[in-house]
Design brief:
By secondary structure, the chain is α/β, with parallel strands linked by helices. It has four domains: about 40 residues, no CATH class; about 250 residues, Rossmann fold, CATH 3.40.50.740; about 190 residues, Dimethylsulfoxide Reductase, domain 2 (3-Layer(aba) Sandwich); about 120 residues, Barwin-like endoglucanases. Helices cover about 30% and strands about 15% of the residues. The protein contains 26 helices and 26 strands. It has a six-stranded mixed β-sheet with strand order 4-3-16-15-14-5, with helices on one face. The longest helix has 18 residues. Bound molecules: ligand MGD (2 copies) and molybdenum atom. The site of one ligand MGD has 28 residues, from helix 6. One ligand MGD binds next to helix 6.
Length: about 675
């Protein structure tokens, strides 16, 4: 991003036209980032709660008072058991200085409980690790040359604009683009074809495709022989157990849909798969991602730079995490680990109880599953809560102390390559707004007040950026902070036309694509791909499906970024109001018409929305674009009142989209 500054005030924000991946384009939200930065609602100084928890009444205090109070609460808690202290952060910013550096050092030194950050991607990440050996995949820029593109549980028009422009270019050059999604999303609408399977059944679809690919002799025997492990066993299994008829039945599709998809995937080259996190927010999401990740090896798609699969590219640019986070400061202690997707449970029943929680880069009251439990936890009078944010979020309403944080325009940071192959420097453009401070500085001050003497607690933000880039991986060769800071962005040290696994060299222990995984076997998990059904979503004829006949999806709304931006009027106006998109048959069966007020409910909670009977979800599925702030919803609730704390098969990931509900028209 380029920011124009006049007399210390940012007056214009734009994409950097020299940056190949964005090509100078910003998404609808970030294009208005100045409105967010200078919003009248920005938190400007530290505050202390004066009302009830949740009420949102606060009074101004000084930074010294705030740091004193937090340090004294932490000292008291640590004297009893440091594990009663819990950091609670996620991905509000993904720059490494403000995301995971000084904070981690601080909590490691304390011996606080560790947080397993599982809200987004852990199922898919571990699924890829089993098959490809890590979070690596094809270069998204090469999608332009693909002739077949599968958008598999991905909605790039909304969630990944810069990939979408590549998909459109490929289409212009004659590619066929197929969306695999229970919902006719804004992306699916613009595809050549839409395969609307039941939520959580993607693994079954991939297994059925494998059956057809093998039966039709569309597999690449040479690639399989040289670069994969376990094909003979996989072949026996899918031919015996996973016919296209079985897959079609399981996925709620027609047999021809499965057959045709497989045959096109086998014949059209190069074929690129954009897998995204939507499909792995299910109980079986990890194994499903692993199963789909086997497909490119079966047809030899990796031979071409425009073939393969990409969920994330994060591990091409491994940073020096140990130096940033300093796990050595734990000094042999092994604190308990709390799964963030089960935060509600942790705050209401963990022993020893959590007594101090520090929330930053995260809005758990809005984004964590099973809100009723989360709120019950944050309402505890004996829980001391600190929230660092730009705005008075739903979570900040439950804080004892609220601290104002700087935005990306106001601090240094470094970003690794995540959905592309570039590293980015974040130079501050303006001075901090109000009395806001970078997260790193808050932890620096807290460390000083706690009496932590290690020199690492005095590292500046630039020193943190420098440390992050001291990585030994080949892809990072030639990239250091000084150079990056000057240039703004740098491509990883990989070829311009990058086909990472054309000649094998996967990141697994065997260096092969592991269709059979010894790593999974060592955890007592079936080493071959198998169908791991969702816990709720696909329904069947069980008791739960009778009471709650509809699957509930709450994917990102176009004008929100999780819960970020959802407080600003501009973006709320675009999204209008919380809405529930429905299939006409599901609506008419309940006497619901377009525009009616409806209540969605299950055993965990309920949520009031406006029905949009638009036929975009397949029958049996309802969709509520999210994540609304609770305080801006008509009934003070949001989609996470309905979602469950159950975690996925691999990685303990959240299962937001594995959720059943019933819908009722309100008078
Ligand atoms: N505008 C915007 N952009 C964002 C975000 C945002 O909140 N707003 N969030 C960012 C973040 S943190 C992330 S992780 C990414 C997420 O990016 P995506 O994964 O692309 O986003 P989702 O909308 O969660 O999922 C994509 C699609 O998966 C579908 N889906 C749900 N369940 C299933 C299933 O079982 N199978 C299949 N095949 N499809 C399913 C949904 O209907 C949805 O259309 O986006 C990032 N970009
Ligand atoms: N129902 C449902 N729930 C979901 C999802 C869904 O699709 N449906 N998506 C899930 C996914 S994919 C994710 S990634 C999570 C995201 O969950 P979170 O990471 O909590 O995401 P946000 O709500 O976008 O951001 C949290 C807060 O970080 C703040 N922030 C940003 N930058 C900074 C900074 O530099 N310092 C400080 N102190 N604060 C900062 C923002 O103002 C915001 O209030 O939500 C998950 N929850
Ligand atoms: Mo995410």
């Amino acid at each position: 991003m380029l920011v124009t500054v006049q007399d210390g005030v940012a007056t214009r924000i734009q994409g950097d036209p020299s940056m190949p991946f964005t090509d100078g384009t910003l998404c609808t939200k970030v294009a208005h980032y100045l409105e967010r930065t200078y919003s009248a609602d920005r938190l400007l100084y530290p505050q202390k709660r004066v009302g009830r928890k949740g009420e949102g009444k606060f009074a101004r205090i000084s930074w010294d008072e705030a740091i004193d109070e937090i340090a004294s609460r932490m000292k008291a808690a640590a004297a009893e058991d440091p594990q009663t202290i819990l950091p609670c952060s996620y991905a509000g910013t993904m720059g490494y200085a403000q995301y995971m550096s000084m904070d981690r050092r601080f909590f490691h030194k304390l011996g606080a409980s560790l947080l397993d950050r599982t809200l987004c991607s852990s199922a898919g990440k571990y699924g890829l690790k089993a098959t490809l050996g890590g979070s690596v995949g094809m270069d998204p820029e090469r999608f332009v040359d693909a002739k077949l593109i599968l958008l598999w549980g991905a909605n790039p028009v909304v969630s990944n604009l810069h990939l979408w422009s590549r998909v459109q270019e490929a289409k212009r050059r004659g590619a066929k683009v197929i969306a695999i999604d229970p919902y006719r999303s804004l992306s699916a609408e613009k595809c050549s074809q839409h395969v609307a399977l039941l939520p959580g059944t993607d693994g079954a679809l991939a297994l059925g495709m494998m059956h057809v690919l093998i039966r039709e002799k569309l597999v690449d025997g040479d690639y399989l022989e040289r670069h994969t492990l376990g094909f003979p066993e996989l072949k026996d299994r899918v031919l015996a157990e996973h016919s296209p008829e079985w897959a079609a039945r399981t996925c709620g599709l027609r047999v021809e849909e499965v057959e045709q998809l497989a045959i096109e995937y086998g014949r059209i080259k190069p074929a690129a798969i954009r897998l995204n996190y939507g499909m792995q927010r299910h109980a079986g999401g990890g194994i499903a991602a692993r199963t789909i990740a086997c497909l490119p090896a079966l047809v030899g798609a990796w031979r071409d730079a425009a073939g393969g699969i990409v969920l994330t590219t994060a591990e091409f640019s491994n940073l020096d995490h140990a130096a940033l986070e300093r796990p050595d400061l734990l000094a042999g202690r092994k604190p308990r680990v709390i799964n963030q997707s089960r935060l509600g449970e942790a705050l209401t029943s963990a022993q020893p109880p959590v007594k101090v929680i520090v929330v930053y880069n995260n809005n758990p009251v809005a984004v964590c599953p099973d809100s009723n439990k989360v709120i019950e936890g944050f309402s505890r009078e004996d829980l001391f809560t600190v929230v660092m944010d730009h705005f008075q979020t739903d979570t900040a309403d439950y804080a004892d102390i609220v601290l104002p944080a700087t935005t990306q325009l106001e601090h240094y940071d470094v970003h690794k390559a995540y959905g592309h192959l570039y590293l980015l420097a974040n130079n501050p453009a303006i001075a901090p707004v109000g009395e806001s401070l970078p997260n790193s500085e808050v932890f620096r001050r807290l460390a000083a007040r706690m009496g932590f003497e290690e020199p690492c607690f005095r590292d500046s933000d630039e020193e943190l950026c420098r440390t992050a880039l001291r990585s030994s991986v080949a892809e990072m060769k030639g990239i250091d902070w000084e150079g990056l800071k000057q240039a703004g962005w740098k491509r990883l040290n990989v070829p311009e036309i990058f086909a990472p696994f054309a000649n094998g060299g996967f990141r697994t222990p065997s260096r092969k694509c592991e269709l059979k995984s010894a790593w999974l076997e060592s955890q007592g998990i079936d080493p071959l791909p198998f169908y791991n059904p969702p816990a709720e979503a696909a329904g069947g004829d069980g008791e739960l499906a009778k009471r709650y006949p509809l699957a509930f999806l709450s994917p990102p709304a176009r004008h929100f970024l999780n819960s970020t931006f959802a407080n600003l009027v501009r973006f709320r106006d675009f999204e209008r109001e919380p809405r529930l998109e429905m299939h006409p048959e599901d609506a008419s069966a309940r006497g619901i018409r377009d525009g009616d007020r409806v209540r969605v409910f299950n055993d965990r909670g309920s949520y009031m929305l406006t029905a949009r009977v638009n036929g975009k979800p397949r029958r049996g599925v309802v969709v509520a674009p999210s994540v609304w702030w609770r305080k801006h919803s008509p009934d003070g609730r949001n989609a996470n009142d309905l979602t469950s704390q159950r975690v996925s098969d691999l990685g303990g990931g959240a299962t937001f989209y594995d959720c059943r509900v019933e819908v009722q028209r309100l008078p």
